[in-house]
Amino acid sequence: MKNYLPAVLLMLACGEGTNAQSGEAVSSNEVQKIILGNFTPAMYQATTVITDPAVISSGLLNDISADSLKADLLALVGFQNRNTFSDTSSTTRGIGAARRWIFNKFLQYSAANDNRLRPAYLTFTYAPASAGCSGTSSINKHADVIAVLPGSQTSNKSLIIIEGHMDSRNVSNCDVTGSAQGAGDNATGSALVMELARVMSKYTFRNTIVFAVVTGEEQGLIGAKALANYLSNNNVLIKAVNNNDVSGGVFCGHTSSAPSCPFYGDIDSTDLRIFSLGDFNAPSKQWARYIKLQYKEQLSSLVTVPTNIQIMEPEDRTGRGGDHQAFTQIGYTAVRFTQANEDGNASNGSGYSDRQHNVRDSLGHYNSATNTIDSIYVNTDYLARNALVNGNSLAMVALGPDTITMSGTLWAANSIRVMFTPATSPGYKVAVRAATNDWDTVYTVTGASSAVLKVPYSSNTTFYVSAAAMDANGTESQFSTEYILTTGMFVLDLPADSTHPVASGNDYYGIRLMPNRPNPFDEATMIAVESGTDAYADRAMLQISSLDGRLVDRIPLQLHKGLNQVVFNHGFGVGGVYICSLLLDGLPIQSTKMIFRK
């Protein structure tokens, strides 16, 4: 899903200005055509076409290899310093050697799979505003490494993207020669993307998948912005982006960026955090929920070590950021996958002894007696499990049907009626949630274009409903935007006439008073009323009264179809509990409590 932001906000969010990346171009005309959806799918058909979702999930589970990931990690840290401005001419050291090695690995994966995976560079220019880091001011040509797996159709040209950044850094972000292995940040994310390119290239998906290993995350997401801007400038649609950054560590440092790990030395190899933008009706949060659902449905019964997927409230850790924001800032759906425990908060202040953004960011202790690395900081089995969650979500959304729309109304005190558009799918999933970021219940509906479902909530509970289409294999589309409902609400019994054309039984036209936000509040609060009709546009009012019945205020409400919002400002110095009532034709329909704080 993509929504365009105002031009001024877009310019600020994406860093358009003195420091902006520019001149984005794909090095291969063939890859550019695939990205734009201007290709013939039959030219990239596999010798053996595998599209069964169960077979693919099982294949991902069996083929993603901790040993393969370890080999790639060792190669990446072997380039010593992958700073964005590091050496580009050496064959063994620096960002140039790293990106050429990644490109060649993509070529190897393609050769093993009918040459269907097509690699290219996304080149761009980035010139720092000032002289920049010493000795780097002349280095302004940069490149992301991408590989595309063409989809089996071009009627829906939306892409699915998985990415991680290849660049590393030391204490100083200008250190382009010292050791900066960047094992955790972010050889792990790069290796994960490469491993999925290797494993997924044998399968056939409806939508094109882009595997991207980008540069310049440490310089302000410049590689991810270059990719996002290139796609936006060419009007390319994206179903979703999975960003993997700091993805394979299990060790808790002395410091970490909240919300993170509990105490120094804690080991966590089973939890996985997904950060995403927004709350109600947020496409990125819906995508995070989809990822978790697909893991539960496709893999939870097959894995020996389950992964606990945590859908986090913020878009990233406190004071931190990542490449997914380069996409969300211009309206694309994107999330960040990050390990549960972090070894440091990247502050590098006095007394900082953790590993993130530091020369100590290595794979683990080096054991001189055995000439091996004790992989405690980066756990490749854990990294493989995170790759599995990633790959499965990409596979299911790339296989599944297009997103539908849904309408919902309260049918009775705790039952809902949902209707699907278009109503031609073999089946649908309906998801409901109330107090958390997780779906509480997911219902399956088959053989019908609408359904009445009982929800697991008590009276006066506000909850959120969304739906997805299912194809003949049971693979879901992405879920629709969310619809707000509240249990136990007043039900209007209105006649079916020209004034009320949608009346049906106890359908009350979706008119509902929602809890004010914030609540409690100090000075002002937002009161929202949702309506499914324009019939009461000039017949509604909000009434504010005290608990003893004293009238405080009446606010006329132009109640139009959709979400209607009113700011109630009562000023400072007032405390207590008041009642907000929605009146239709002078009669109270529903009430909520509002708590005023002095």
Would you give an account of this structure?
With 598 residues, this protein is an alpha+beta fold. It folds into three domains: 7-345 and 356-399, Aminopeptidase; 405-486, Immunoglobulin-like, CATH 2.60.40.10; 512-596, Macroglobulin (MG2) domain (Immunoglobulin-like, Sandwich), CATH 2.60.40.1930. It is built from ten helices and 25 strands. It has helices spanning 7-13, 29-36, 53-63, 66-77, 95-111, 183-200, 222-233, 283-298, 324-328, 380-399, and strands at residues 21-26, 118-126, 141-149, 159-165, 209-214, 238-244, 271-276, 308-311, 334-339, 365-367, 372-374, 405-412, 415-421, 427-433, 441-446, 450-454, 462-470, 483-486, 512-517, 524-531, 540-546, 551-557, 562-569, 576-584, 587-596. A nine-stranded mixed β-sheet has the order 1-2-3-5-4-6-9-7-8, with helices on both faces. It has a four-stranded antiparallel β-sheet with strand order 15-14-17-18, with no helix packed on it. A four-stranded antiparallel β-sheet has the order 22-21-24-25, with no helix packed on it. Strand 7, helix 8 and strand 8 (308-311) form a beta-alpha-beta unit. Helix 4 (66-77) crosses helix 6 (183-200). The radius of gyration is 26 Å and the shape is globular. The two termini are 42 Å apart.
